[in-house]
Design goal:
The chain is of the alpha/beta class and about 350 residues long. The protein has nine helices and 16 strands.
Protein backbone atom coordinates (compact mmCIF):
# COMPACT_ATOMS: atom_id res chain seq x y z
CA UNK A 1 0.00 0.00 0.00
CA UNK A 2 1.34 3.42 -0.97
CA UNK A 3 1.77 6.02 1.79
CA UNK A 4 0.78 9.41 0.34
CA UNK A 5 0.98 12.91 1.82
CA UNK A 6 -2.06 15.00 0.90
CA UNK A 7 -1.13 18.11 2.83
CA UNK A 8 0.27 20.32 0.09
CA UNK A 9 -2.08 20.09 -2.86
CA UNK A 10 -5.72 20.48 -1.87
CA UNK A 11 -8.36 18.17 -3.27
CA UNK A 12 -6.47 17.70 -6.53
CA UNK A 13 -4.02 15.32 -4.87
CA UNK A 14 -6.87 13.16 -3.62
CA UNK A 15 -8.56 13.06 -7.04
CA UNK A 16 -5.29 12.13 -8.75
CA UNK A 17 -4.66 9.39 -6.21
CA UNK A 18 -8.16 7.97 -6.63
CA UNK A 19 -7.88 7.91 -10.42
CA UNK A 20 -4.42 6.36 -10.53
CA UNK A 21 -5.30 3.82 -7.86
CA UNK A 22 -8.34 2.67 -9.85
CA UNK A 23 -6.49 2.32 -13.16
CA UNK A 24 -3.28 0.76 -11.78
CA UNK A 25 -4.79 -1.37 -9.02
CA UNK A 26 -2.44 0.15 -6.39
CA UNK A 27 -3.93 0.71 -2.93
CA UNK A 28 -3.01 3.81 -0.94
CA UNK A 29 -3.34 5.51 2.39
CA UNK A 30 -3.37 9.32 2.23
CA UNK A 31 -2.75 11.40 5.34
CA UNK A 32 -2.91 15.15 5.89
CA UNK A 33 -5.67 15.54 3.28
CA UNK A 34 -6.04 19.23 2.38
CA UNK A 35 -3.83 20.02 5.35
CA UNK A 36 -2.79 23.43 3.99
CA UNK A 37 -6.40 24.63 3.60
CA UNK A 38 -8.21 26.84 6.16
CA UNK A 39 -10.61 23.93 6.81
CA UNK A 40 -8.60 20.73 6.30
CA UNK A 41 -10.03 17.33 5.57
CA UNK A 42 -12.68 15.86 3.31
CA UNK A 43 -15.64 18.00 2.28
CA UNK A 44 -18.80 17.02 0.42
CA UNK A 45 -17.37 17.14 -3.11
CA UNK A 46 -14.27 15.16 -2.05
CA UNK A 47 -16.43 12.50 -0.43
CA UNK A 48 -18.51 12.39 -3.62
CA UNK A 49 -15.37 11.71 -5.66
CA UNK A 50 -14.31 8.95 -3.24
CA UNK A 51 -17.76 7.38 -3.43
CA UNK A 52 -17.94 7.57 -7.22
CA UNK A 53 -14.52 6.03 -7.87
CA UNK A 54 -15.02 3.44 -5.13
CA UNK A 55 -18.33 2.34 -6.65
CA UNK A 56 -16.78 2.09 -10.10
CA UNK A 57 -13.95 -0.19 -8.95
CA UNK A 58 -15.61 -1.91 -5.96
CA UNK A 59 -12.99 -0.49 -3.60
CA UNK A 60 -12.63 -1.08 0.10
CA UNK A 61 -12.52 2.34 1.75
CA UNK A 62 -11.75 3.35 5.32
CA UNK A 63 -12.08 6.71 7.14
CA UNK A 64 -14.12 8.36 4.37
CA UNK A 65 -15.95 10.78 6.64
CA UNK A 66 -16.63 14.51 6.53
CA UNK A 67 -13.61 16.33 7.92
CA UNK A 68 -11.34 13.28 7.92
CA UNK A 69 -7.71 14.01 7.02
CA UNK A 70 -6.90 10.33 6.41
CA UNK A 71 -8.23 7.90 3.80
CA UNK A 72 -7.42 4.29 2.92
CA UNK A 73 -8.43 3.12 -0.56
CA UNK A 74 -8.02 -0.46 -1.86
CA UNK A 75 -9.39 -0.78 -5.42
CA UNK A 76 -10.79 -3.75 -7.25
CA UNK A 77 -11.19 -3.99 -11.05
CA UNK A 78 -12.97 -1.10 -12.78
CA UNK A 79 -16.52 -2.18 -13.57
CA UNK A 80 -18.66 -0.80 -16.41
CA UNK A 81 -22.21 0.20 -15.60
CA UNK A 82 -24.31 3.16 -14.50
CA UNK A 83 -23.66 5.06 -11.28
CA UNK A 84 -25.16 8.06 -9.49
CA UNK A 85 -23.50 10.71 -7.34
CA UNK A 86 -25.26 13.38 -5.31
CA UNK A 87 -23.33 16.33 -3.90
CA UNK A 88 -25.80 17.86 -1.46
CA UNK A 89 -24.14 21.28 -1.81
CA UNK A 90 -22.89 23.43 -4.69
CA UNK A 91 -19.68 21.38 -4.70
CA UNK A 92 -18.31 20.87 -8.20
CA UNK A 93 -19.54 17.84 -10.13
CA UNK A 94 -16.86 18.49 -12.74
CA UNK A 95 -14.13 17.91 -10.16
CA UNK A 96 -15.79 14.58 -9.39
CA UNK A 97 -15.76 13.84 -13.12
CA UNK A 98 -12.04 14.69 -13.16
CA UNK A 99 -11.38 11.81 -10.76
CA UNK A 100 -13.42 9.45 -12.95
CA UNK A 101 -12.19 10.49 -16.40
CA UNK A 102 -8.95 8.40 -16.33
CA UNK A 103 -10.99 5.24 -15.69
CA UNK A 104 -11.58 5.15 -19.45
CA UNK A 105 -8.08 3.63 -19.65
CA UNK A 106 -9.20 0.63 -17.57
CA UNK A 107 -12.31 -0.28 -19.61
CA UNK A 108 -12.27 -3.10 -22.13
CA UNK A 109 -13.58 -2.84 -25.68
CA UNK A 110 -17.34 -2.25 -25.89
CA UNK A 111 -17.57 -1.48 -22.16
CA UNK A 112 -19.15 1.75 -20.98
CA UNK A 113 -19.24 3.54 -17.63
CA UNK A 114 -21.87 6.25 -17.07
CA UNK A 115 -22.02 8.52 -14.03
CA UNK A 116 -24.95 10.85 -13.38
CA UNK A 117 -24.36 13.57 -10.81
CA UNK A 118 -26.09 16.47 -9.09
CA UNK A 119 -24.43 19.48 -7.47
CA UNK A 120 -22.57 22.55 -8.73
CA UNK A 121 -21.41 23.11 -12.30
CA UNK A 122 -20.00 26.67 -12.32
CA UNK A 123 -18.48 27.44 -8.93
CA UNK A 124 -15.27 28.83 -7.42
CA UNK A 125 -12.03 26.86 -7.37
CA UNK A 126 -13.18 24.43 -10.06
CA UNK A 127 -13.36 24.17 -13.85
CA UNK A 128 -16.55 25.65 -15.25
CA UNK A 129 -18.89 23.90 -17.67
CA UNK A 130 -17.59 25.65 -20.78
CA UNK A 131 -13.94 25.31 -19.83
CA UNK A 132 -14.37 21.60 -19.12
CA UNK A 133 -16.36 20.73 -22.24
CA UNK A 134 -14.73 23.11 -24.72
CA UNK A 135 -11.09 22.98 -23.58
CA UNK A 136 -10.22 20.06 -21.29
CA UNK A 137 -12.28 17.19 -22.76
CA UNK A 138 -11.25 17.74 -26.42
CA UNK A 139 -7.62 17.31 -25.36
CA UNK A 140 -8.43 14.20 -23.32
CA UNK A 141 -10.14 12.69 -26.38
CA UNK A 142 -7.16 13.62 -28.53
CA UNK A 143 -5.04 11.53 -26.13
CA UNK A 144 -7.33 8.55 -26.75
CA UNK A 145 -9.59 8.71 -23.71
CA UNK A 146 -13.22 8.13 -24.65
CA UNK A 147 -15.17 10.69 -22.60
CA UNK A 148 -18.28 12.80 -23.13
CA UNK A 149 -19.87 15.16 -20.61
CA UNK A 150 -23.43 16.44 -20.80
CA UNK A 151 -24.65 19.25 -18.54
CA UNK A 152 -28.45 19.31 -18.56
CA UNK A 153 -28.88 21.87 -15.77
CA UNK A 154 -26.43 24.45 -14.43
CA UNK A 155 -25.76 24.67 -10.72
CA UNK A 156 -24.56 27.93 -9.15
CA UNK A 157 -23.63 28.72 -5.55
CA UNK A 158 -25.19 28.38 -3.00
CA UNK A 159 -28.03 25.99 -3.94
CA UNK A 160 -26.24 23.88 -6.55
CA UNK A 161 -28.95 21.72 -8.06
CA UNK A 162 -27.11 21.20 -11.33
CA UNK A 163 -27.39 17.96 -13.27
CA UNK A 164 -24.68 16.41 -15.45
CA UNK A 165 -23.48 13.07 -16.73
CA UNK A 166 -20.12 11.64 -17.77
CA UNK A 167 -20.01 8.80 -20.27
CA UNK A 168 -16.76 6.82 -20.59
CA UNK A 169 -15.83 4.22 -23.18
CA UNK A 170 -12.71 2.13 -23.69
CA UNK A 171 -9.58 4.23 -24.22
CA UNK A 172 -6.91 3.87 -26.87
CA UNK A 173 -4.17 5.98 -25.22
CA UNK A 174 -1.60 7.65 -27.45
CA UNK A 175 0.75 10.59 -26.86
CA UNK A 176 -0.79 14.04 -26.61
CA UNK A 177 1.57 16.37 -28.47
CA UNK A 178 0.80 20.07 -27.94
CA UNK A 179 4.06 21.89 -28.53
CA UNK A 180 4.12 24.50 -31.30
CA UNK A 181 0.61 25.88 -31.53
CA UNK A 182 0.96 28.74 -33.97
CA UNK A 183 -0.96 31.98 -33.45
CA UNK A 184 -4.37 32.23 -31.85
CA UNK A 185 -6.83 32.33 -34.75
CA UNK A 186 -10.11 33.33 -33.13
CA UNK A 187 -11.83 33.93 -29.79
CA UNK A 188 -15.23 32.80 -28.56
CA UNK A 189 -17.15 34.23 -25.61
CA UNK A 190 -19.67 32.05 -23.76
CA UNK A 191 -21.78 34.21 -21.45
CA UNK A 192 -24.29 32.25 -19.37
CA UNK A 193 -26.75 33.59 -16.79
CA UNK A 194 -29.73 32.29 -14.86
CA UNK A 195 -33.17 32.94 -16.37
CA UNK A 196 -33.96 35.09 -13.32
CA UNK A 197 -31.40 37.61 -14.61
CA UNK A 198 -32.78 37.86 -18.15
CA UNK A 199 -34.70 41.11 -17.52
CA UNK A 200 -31.38 42.78 -16.67
CA UNK A 201 -29.78 41.55 -19.93
CA UNK A 202 -26.97 40.01 -17.88
CA UNK A 203 -25.79 37.48 -20.48
CA UNK A 204 -25.88 40.01 -23.33
CA UNK A 205 -24.08 42.65 -21.24
CA UNK A 206 -21.31 40.22 -20.41
CA UNK A 207 -20.91 39.18 -24.03
CA UNK A 208 -20.82 42.81 -25.25
CA UNK A 209 -18.32 43.89 -22.60
CA UNK A 210 -16.02 40.95 -23.33
CA UNK A 211 -16.20 41.46 -27.09
CA UNK A 212 -15.38 45.17 -26.83
CA UNK A 213 -12.47 44.57 -24.47
CA UNK A 214 -11.08 41.80 -26.66
CA UNK A 215 -11.34 43.98 -29.78
CA UNK A 216 -9.37 46.66 -27.94
CA UNK A 217 -6.62 44.09 -27.33
CA UNK A 218 -6.42 42.23 -30.62
CA UNK A 219 -7.75 42.24 -34.21
CA UNK A 220 -8.76 38.58 -33.91
CA UNK A 221 -12.37 37.68 -34.76
CA UNK A 222 -14.59 37.35 -31.68
CA UNK A 223 -17.75 35.22 -31.55
CA UNK A 224 -20.26 35.78 -28.73
CA UNK A 225 -22.76 33.28 -27.37
CA UNK A 226 -25.09 34.73 -24.69
CA UNK A 227 -27.38 32.15 -23.08
CA UNK A 228 -29.94 31.90 -20.27
CA UNK A 229 -30.45 28.71 -18.27
CA UNK A 230 -32.87 27.45 -15.62
CA UNK A 231 -31.18 27.21 -12.21
CA UNK A 232 -31.95 26.86 -8.51
CA UNK A 233 -29.76 29.86 -7.60
CA UNK A 234 -29.27 33.07 -9.61
CA UNK A 235 -25.78 33.15 -11.06
CA UNK A 236 -23.66 33.91 -14.10
CA UNK A 237 -20.40 32.79 -15.67
CA UNK A 238 -18.40 33.96 -18.68
CA UNK A 239 -15.70 31.99 -20.46
CA UNK A 240 -13.34 33.23 -23.16
CA UNK A 241 -11.89 30.45 -25.31
CA UNK A 242 -8.80 31.15 -27.43
CA UNK A 243 -8.68 28.83 -30.44
CA UNK A 244 -5.35 28.13 -32.11
CA UNK A 245 -4.42 25.89 -35.02
CA UNK A 246 -3.59 23.14 -32.53
CA UNK A 247 -3.87 24.51 -29.00
CA UNK A 248 -6.74 25.91 -27.00
CA UNK A 249 -7.01 27.89 -23.77
CA UNK A 250 -9.90 29.01 -21.58
CA UNK A 251 -10.34 31.95 -19.21
CA UNK A 252 -13.26 32.38 -16.83
CA UNK A 253 -15.04 35.09 -14.87
CA UNK A 254 -17.58 33.99 -12.28
CA UNK A 255 -20.53 36.09 -11.16
CA UNK A 256 -21.16 37.00 -7.53
CA UNK A 257 -23.94 38.84 -5.75
CA UNK A 258 -23.51 42.58 -6.34
CA UNK A 259 -20.81 42.12 -9.01
CA UNK A 260 -21.72 43.69 -12.38
CA UNK A 261 -21.46 41.39 -15.37
CA UNK A 262 -19.05 43.85 -16.96
CA UNK A 263 -16.61 43.06 -14.14
CA UNK A 264 -17.14 39.34 -14.66
CA UNK A 265 -16.25 39.82 -18.33
CA UNK A 266 -13.23 41.87 -17.27
CA UNK A 267 -11.95 38.99 -15.13
CA UNK A 268 -12.03 36.58 -18.07
CA UNK A 269 -10.55 39.05 -20.57
CA UNK A 270 -7.85 40.05 -18.08
CA UNK A 271 -6.84 36.41 -17.66
CA UNK A 272 -6.61 36.04 -21.45
CA UNK A 273 -4.53 39.20 -21.67
CA UNK A 274 -2.05 37.88 -19.09
CA UNK A 275 -1.80 34.65 -21.06
CA UNK A 276 -0.69 36.41 -24.22
CA UNK A 277 2.91 37.15 -25.02
CA UNK A 278 4.47 40.16 -23.34
CA UNK A 279 4.51 42.23 -26.52
CA UNK A 280 0.72 42.51 -26.31
CA UNK A 281 -0.17 40.57 -29.44
CA UNK A 282 -1.75 37.15 -29.83
CA UNK A 283 1.36 35.61 -31.36
CA UNK A 284 2.70 32.10 -31.03
CA UNK A 285 2.50 30.93 -27.45
CA UNK A 286 1.85 27.96 -25.21
CA UNK A 287 -0.72 25.37 -26.17
CA UNK A 288 -2.87 25.57 -23.05
CA UNK A 289 -3.58 27.79 -20.06
CA UNK A 290 -2.22 26.91 -16.63
CA UNK A 291 -5.46 25.45 -15.27
CA UNK A 292 -5.80 23.14 -18.28
CA UNK A 293 -2.18 22.03 -17.88
CA UNK A 294 -3.02 21.07 -14.28
CA UNK A 295 -5.99 19.04 -15.45
CA UNK A 296 -3.99 17.27 -18.19
CA UNK A 297 -1.27 15.99 -15.85
CA UNK A 298 -2.99 12.63 -15.26
CA UNK A 299 -3.91 12.35 -18.95
CA UNK A 300 -0.22 12.73 -19.84
CA UNK A 301 0.76 10.19 -17.19
CA UNK A 302 -1.56 7.65 -18.85
CA UNK A 303 -1.04 8.51 -22.52
CA UNK A 304 2.38 10.17 -22.71
CA UNK A 305 3.24 13.25 -24.72
CA UNK A 306 4.15 16.88 -24.20
CA UNK A 307 2.14 20.02 -23.42
CA UNK A 308 3.36 23.61 -23.29
CA UNK A 309 1.90 26.22 -20.96
CA UNK A 310 2.71 29.71 -19.69
CA UNK A 311 3.88 28.66 -16.23
CA UNK A 312 4.16 25.62 -13.98
CA UNK A 313 1.66 25.86 -11.12
CA UNK A 314 2.05 24.51 -7.62
CA UNK A 315 -0.59 21.90 -8.48
CA UNK A 316 1.60 20.58 -11.28
CA UNK A 317 4.59 20.30 -8.96
CA UNK A 318 2.69 18.32 -6.33
CA UNK A 319 0.89 16.21 -8.95
CA UNK A 320 4.25 15.23 -10.43
CA UNK A 321 5.37 13.82 -7.09
CA UNK A 322 2.12 11.91 -6.62
CA UNK A 323 2.25 10.45 -10.15
CA UNK A 324 5.81 9.33 -9.38
CA UNK A 325 4.54 7.44 -6.31
CA UNK A 326 2.38 5.32 -8.66
CA UNK A 327 5.37 4.68 -10.96
CA UNK A 328 4.72 7.44 -13.49
CA UNK A 329 7.18 10.00 -14.79
CA UNK A 330 6.13 13.60 -15.41
CA UNK A 331 8.99 15.91 -16.38
CA UNK A 332 8.45 19.63 -15.73
CA UNK A 333 10.66 22.24 -17.39
CA UNK A 334 10.45 25.94 -16.58
CA UNK A 335 10.70 28.39 -19.49
CA UNK A 336 8.68 30.46 -21.93
CA UNK A 337 6.76 28.37 -22.64
CA UNK A 338 7.02 25.90 -19.78
CA UNK A 339 6.82 22.20 -20.66
CA UNK A 340 5.02 19.23 -19.10
CA UNK A 341 6.26 15.95 -20.59
CA UNK A 342 5.80 12.21 -20.09
CA UNK A 343 7.94 9.77 -22.10
CA UNK A 344 7.02 6.64 -20.15
CA UNK A 345 3.24 6.34 -19.56
CA UNK A 346 1.87 4.27 -16.70
CA UNK A 347 0.99 0.66 -17.42
CA UNK A 348 -2.75 0.18 -16.90
Amino acid sequence: MLDLDGSAGGGQLLRTALALSAVTGRAFEMTGIRGDRPEPGLKSQHLAAVEAVADACDADVAEAEYGSETLTFEPGPVRPGEYEVDIDTAGSMLLVFDALLPLSAALDDDEELVVRATGGTDVKWAPTTDHYRRVKLPFARRAGLDARATVSRRGFYPAGGGEASLRLGSADPHPLELRDTGPVERLSVHSVAAEALADADVAERGARAARQSLRDLTPLPVETHPEYVETDSPGAVLTVVAHGADGRAGFTGLGEKGKPMEEVAGDAVGAFDRFRRADGTANDGPAVDGHTADQLAVVLALAGGEVTTRRLTDHLQTNRDLVAAFGGDLELTEGDPAVVRCDDPLDT
